[in-house]
Automatic annotation (TrEMBL):
This is Peroxisomal sarcosine oxidase. SUPFAM superfamilies: FAD-linked reductases, C-terminal domain, FAD/NAD(P)-binding domain. Residues 7-359 form the FAD dependent oxidoreductase domain. It is an enzyme of class 1 (oxidoreductase). It comes from Conger conger. Its cofactor is FAD. GO terms for molecular function: flavin adenine dinucleotide binding; L-pipecolate oxidase activity; sarcosine oxidase activity. Keywords: FAD, Flavoprotein, Oxidoreductase.
Amino acid sequence: MESEDFDCVVVGAGIQGSFTAYHLAKNNKRTLLLEQFVLPHSRGSSHGQTRIIRKAYDQDFYTHMMEESYQLWSQLEKEAGVQLYRRTGMLLMGPEMGEEFLLYKNTMERNGIPTVTLDPAEFSAHIPHVNRCPGHAAIVDTTAGVLYADRALRTAQEVFQRLGGVIRDGEKVIDIKPGTPVTVTTASRIYRAKSLVITAGPWANILLSHTNLHLPLQVLKINVCYWRERTPGMYSVGKRFPCFLQMGSEEHHIYGLPANEYPGLMKICYHVGSETDPDERDRQTDRGDIAILSRYISRQFPGLVPVPAVVESCMYTVTPDHHFVLDCHPSHRNIVIGAGFSGHGFKFGPVVGKVLCELALGRMPSYDLSPFKIQRFPSHSKAAL
Ligand SMILES: Cc1cc2nc3c(=O)[nH]c(=O)nc-3n(C[C@H](O)[C@H](O)[C@H](O)COP(=O)(O)OP(=O)(O)OC[C@H]3O[C@@H](n4cnc5c(N)ncnc54)[C@H](O)[C@@H]3O)c2cc1C
């Protein structure tokens, strides 16, 4: 088989790989984006119509990265002439003195994120049809909103191609030979590149096994549940209902988005799922999360029927500390890894892509990447080095 040469090959056309490819093409690098499935597909982590975007975080470094991410999302909207973001605000609810709630509150205050604190009377006036848990406080991150995920993914890929980038879908990478150049083999072709970026989502460890590296990543199946409004429009984006994040209750970390993609149905999900093999996702049939959500909805959202009307599937790839992996391979510096987005990576797509592009080009990254380094998992990665 003859080989084809590129400056950079990116494996995985989810949101992180697509934005990495986009930035590489903007830097005039001849870039190939490889995807195992025919695009678009719904078997990874980046499909579905909506994601929450917010600056509210429990760590300054995420809030800082989100400042630029908002600018880059808006830049892509202008380049492509499409709307990718709708501002709704995000309601953060949790025990007033709870450790996690305070971390979010303090990060927002320190970083001057515009917020509104709602006392119980204001809460009832502004957030109708939601029962607040006793003892819980409520703050709104007014910068937050909804990202149109499928459209965003398609747009990043289209602009990448317009910039001269090449996408080959339906082409699974089956082997990687580290070196300079690095050689990437698919079922039908061989490619050589100065650098390789691996953004393979739930399949990251399968790809990394070709480079003798194993990361402590857990793949979880998430049941994406939509709940019917008793009165259509009650919790809709049109009526300016916000996104929400519920922390610190019996049901740790539940989040929701206003009814939008399926009129009359509100998306509310649990931020934890059950472990799965990414190639056998639907053999994982645990619905314990749905029982938790039903109980929560019966109590807090009286305007929703507490039985899901639609259940879709998606996967998280979770690290032990829930922080991303954004780093060069410890033994092969021209192999760059973006992995472990732990169920909160979509909103960072443009800025993650920028950082992975910088690493692939051997440039100094725009951010301090210490929280995202592989060496924070010494016991797991050492054996492979
Ligand atoms: C239900 C749900 C809700 C979420 N909500 C939010 C939210 O509100 N806000 C937020 O910011 N984030 C959210 N996230 C997280 C976010 O969607 C993910 O962090 C992000 O999509 C991860 O993207 P990725 O590119 O790393 O992975 P993926 O999208 O999985 O992309 C990896 C790609 O690599 C391809 N691939 C794998 N192996 C190979 C191979 N051998 N050869 C070629 N291609 C290969 C796969 O097919 C896949 O297309 C949510 C995730 C889920 C599942």
